[in-house]
Each structure stands twice: as structure tokens, then as C-alpha cells.
Amino acid sequence: MSRGFRAARVAAASVVASLLLAAAGRELLRRQAAHARRRIGKPLGEDALDADRVWRRRLPGEPLELLLLGDSIAAGLGAERPKDTLGARLAKGVGRRMQRPVRLRTAAVVGSESSALAAQLATLPAAYRPDVAVVIVGGNDVTHRVPVGRAAAQLRQAVEELQGRGVPVVVGTCPDLGALRPVPQPLRSLGSRLSRQLAQAQADAASAAGARTVSLGRVVGPFFISQPDEMFSLDRFHPSAVGYRRTAEALLPTVLDVLAADDS
Questions:
Q1: Is pLDDT above 50 for 231?
Q2: Looking at the annotation, which residues are catalytic?
Q3: Half-sphere exposure of residue 108, counting CA atoms within 13 Å on the CB side?
């Protein structure tokens, strides 16, 4: 047997072994994902509480208009009271700081990927012009293995459409899925890596389209890791009232900056 033939056989065996390992890894991740879905289940259902109303209505002046787009976090799934949803927390914070009432409109839908943003925008009245839009999306793109580039491009298209309507945008980038303790290793580490990659791609795409961004994984993620009993709701996947309060506190300074810039 010639040296070249032996080298070719070794190379072929190495390729086969790599393919087998990759297949075994994919099967392990598939089984772990199924196990995680069974553990998490849907104890919260699939509908978030309706928090759309005027908050801080006793304050003077016309209400500011706040729009929430995105997935279950933007919709507030996991909050036990409307006032504890992310949208309500933001509306109350904006109202308190701006000394104006704030009307909340939530177009976010539980389970949405970035591809759903266009449909959410299509539900809005043609004449509707919020003072600021907050977008949080990405977790479902990661769990459904949507390519990072595609998800980031879909986010950018939504931001560009809002900017075209004259609406300033704040994007909370994809949270770090490594905080999800019901998800076993190595799937949790993979989810963490993929969510960080998507968050960076989202930040780049949204910024290029003119939006302001907040890294939820960096600013809020450590609280979900160090204080999971307080930060997560009963499904251990979505934020609790405390988790939404922390998330709103992370977003609020940027939302206020955008509103102040728009007033100047």
C-alpha cells in the first residue's frame, strides 16, 4: 500500500469520525432540547396580560405614546399583574421621569421570532406615530436555530420601517440564554454562545439603521444568573415581576435619552 493511499484512507476515516461525532452531538442536543421543553412546559399559557392603557394618567399634558414590539418578554409573559409587565414598568418609569401620562400599546406576541416583526408592524394603524418604540426579540430565533444573519436583517428591516415613519427606536438585544437553569449542559452553553452572537449582530444591525441599543445580556443577565429564584417566574424561563423591573430599569435611561433628543 502506497504512502499516499494510506494518507488518503486516514484522512477519509478522520472525516467519517468527525461526521459521526457531529451527528452524535446533534442528537444529544436534540434530546436535551426536548427534555428542556418538557421540564419548562407552558405553565403560563401563551397569552400575556393586557397592560395597554394610559399609565400615570393623573399627570398633566397629553400622553406620550410608547410601543412595545417583539416576543414574550416584550409582551410581559410571566408577570402576574398588568402593572408588572415590561411595558407597564417602562410606561410608569417614563411617566414619572417626564411628568407626563404614557399610553402603552403592545404589538409584541408571545413566541415571536424576528421574522414576526413585520406582521406586528402591519397591525398598527397607518396614522399611529408613537413617541418611542422598544423592540425585544431574539430568544426564539436562538431556540429555533434561525441563522444569525437572517434574524439580524429582519430586525434591521423593522427598525428601518419605524425610522421611516419618524419613530425613534430602542432595541434590547437578545438575553443570554445561559441563565436558563432548566436547560442542561452542553445545550445551555451552546444557547449562551449563540444568544451572545445574535445580540452582537442585533446591536450592529440596529445601530446601522439608526436605533439605540441596550445589551440585556450584559446589563441584566448577571442578575438572572445570580438571583434566579427572584428574577424568573414559575416556569423558570420568563421573567418574574422582579425580572421585569430590572429589565425596565436597564432600558429606561436609553428610552429617556431618545425622548429627550426627540423633544430638543
A1: yes
A2: 72, 235, 238
A3: 33
Cell representation of residue 254: 436609553
**Do residue 120 and residue 162 come from a single domain?**
yes
- Domain holding 169, by residue range, is 45-263
- Whole-model pTM: value is 0.82
Count of the separate structural domains present in the chain: 2
| Pick from 219, 224, 222, 228: nearest CA to 251 | 219
Residue 246 in grid coordinates: 430590572
The distance of Cα 198 from the centroid of its chain, to the nearest Å, equals 10
**Closest CA relative to residue 113, chosen from 61, 164, 155:** 155
Looking at the fold, whether 36 and 53 belong to one and the same domain comes out as: no
DSSP 83: G
How far lies 249's CA from each of 188, 252, 258, in Å? Answer: 26, 5, 15
Q: What is the pLDDT of residue 200?
A: 97
Residue corresponding to grid cell 406576541 = 109
67-83 pLDDT per residue, tens: 999 999 999 998 999 99
Same domain, 14 and 104: no
Q: What is the DSSP letter of 116?
A: G
- 175 and 248 housed in the same domain: yes
Same domain, 143 and 95: yes
What is the spatial distance between Cα 199 and Cα 193, in angstroms, rounded to a whole number? Answer: 10
Contacts 24+ apart (CB under 8 A), 186-189: 186/28, 186/29, 186/32, 187/29, 187/32, 187/33, 187/36
The reply to whether 53 and 168 lie within a common domain is: yes
